[in-house]
Amino acid sequence: MSLFNTDTPVDGVLDASGLNCPEPVMMLHQHIRDLVPGGLLKVIATDPSTRRDIPKFCVFLDHELVGQAEEAGTYLYWIRKKQD
């Protein structure tokens, strides 16, 4: 994963804070579906299992995980929806 500017404008934000597996990934599936192809989605989560689940989600569905970060127990992800 290359260096990613966390200030990059996004096309949508999914705040899954306080939710536990499998809810964040289920919500991600719906949010990414509603995003325009090539759109950038920021995901905010507090469940540590998202560190495993979200990268696998991206690989499995061919979306690009362009950035991820952890800040005081909050996990941040930037996902670019695949082009149709």
TrEMBL record:
<feature type="domain" description="UPF0033">
    <location>
        <begin position="14"/>
        <end position="38"/>
    </location>
</feature>
<dbReference type="InterPro" id="IPR036868">
    <property type="entry name" value="TusA-like_sf"/>
</dbReference>
<keyword id="KW-0963">Cytoplasm</keyword>
<feature type="active site" description="Cysteine persulfide intermediate">
    <location>
        <position position="21"/>
    </location>
</feature>
<dbReference type="GO" id="GO:0002143">
    <property type="term" value="P:tRNA wobble position uridine thiolation"/>
</dbReference>
<dbReference type="GO" id="GO:0005737">
    <property type="term" value="C:cytoplasm"/>
</dbReference>
<dbReference type="Pfam" id="PF01206">
    <property type="entry name" value="TusA"/>
</dbReference>
<comment type="similarity">
    <text>Belongs to the sulfur carrier protein TusA family.</text>
</comment>
<protein>
    <recommendedName>
        <fullName>Sulfur carrier protein TusA</fullName>
    </recommendedName>
</protein>
<dbReference type="InterPro" id="IPR001455">
    <property type="entry name" value="TusA-like"/>
</dbReference>
<comment type="function">
    <text>Sulfur carrier protein which probably makes part of a sulfur-relay system.</text>
</comment>
<dbReference type="GO" id="GO:0016740">
    <property type="term" value="F:transferase activity"/>
</dbReference>
<keyword id="KW-0808">Transferase</keyword>
<dbReference type="InterPro" id="IPR022931">
    <property type="entry name" value="Sulphur_carrier_TusA"/>
</dbReference>
<dbReference type="GO" id="GO:0097163">
    <property type="term" value="F:sulfur carrier activity"/>
</dbReference>
